[in-house]
Amino acid sequence: MRTTTARVPAKINLCLGVGPRRDDGYHPLATVYQAVDLCDEVRATEVDDDTVTVRTQFAGDGTREQAPVPTGPDNLAVRAALALREAFGVDAGVSLAIRKAIPVMGGMAGGSADAAAALVACDALWGTQAKRRELEEIAATLGSDVPFLLHGGTALGGGRGEEVSPVLARGRFHWVFAIADHGLSTAQVYAEYDVLHADSPPPMPEVPQALLTALAAGDATGLGRALSNDLQAPALGLRPELQRVFEVAEEGDALGALVSGSGPTVMVLAEDASHSEELARLLLATGVCADAVQASGPEAGAHLI
What we know:
Enzyme class: transferase
Order of helices and strands: EEEHEHHHEEEHHHEHHEEHEE
Active site: 11, 145
Domain GHMP kinase N-terminal: 75-153
Structural class: alpha+beta
Distance between the termini: 17 Å
Catalytic activity: 4-CDP-2-C-methyl-D-erythritol + ATP = 4-CDP-2-C-methyl-D-erythritol 2-phosphate + ADP + H(+)
CATH architecture of the largest domain: 2-Layer Sandwich
């Protein structure tokens, strides 16, 4: 049986501005994405019929509880394979195997990452030879983060997040991800955000110029000061114990800390690789998280290995 495998990075939001809820239920976003080298892998194997199936295994030492990953048609990787097949009239099935390293329901777009990897892997397996623009169009139908995870690097996100354009970023930035022992629902966080703004709708979001300036200069200190996330307050309201992660990060002289996306993962910015090791040890020693994972970015998007 022929197989192809794609690797895909996790996504973080260096800033996440959230506007008022639209009539379609979505919120306009202004964000800067960065892909980091904490990666899932999706292996696509040909099958003798037209079924599309998925199974998942988890990387790591198993110290944190793993949220359930859907194995049916709700799995984003399955949806990606089906969407690619429909777009190109493919008469074939596929068996998908996902090796998870990105936290599930951790605010780092693990499901969207798997969808991007499935597009790349199935395109190679089925020989559809899709142009990048065609993959991006399919990706946008699957979720707001999927198009960026095809691109990787550092990029501006607009619309619902699916409108992606590159951002100049020099050097690499070193992170520690304080991973909680269980996930947090994105829908629940957005619902809490709407409750907090029920009496005063938020303005249309914008990306802070200070953040773009820091990225262009490769200035980690400036980036730490410019990190922002409009979903942080509702995430902390739902999970107030996460505040302790920020306190420990400050004790360790972190350059900045931020709830990643809709949480509950907290991303902590270090000065360099050595400092990130120190911060990881401190976070684990104080028991404020189930795991502390080091990574750096920017990283390439979904690609064959």
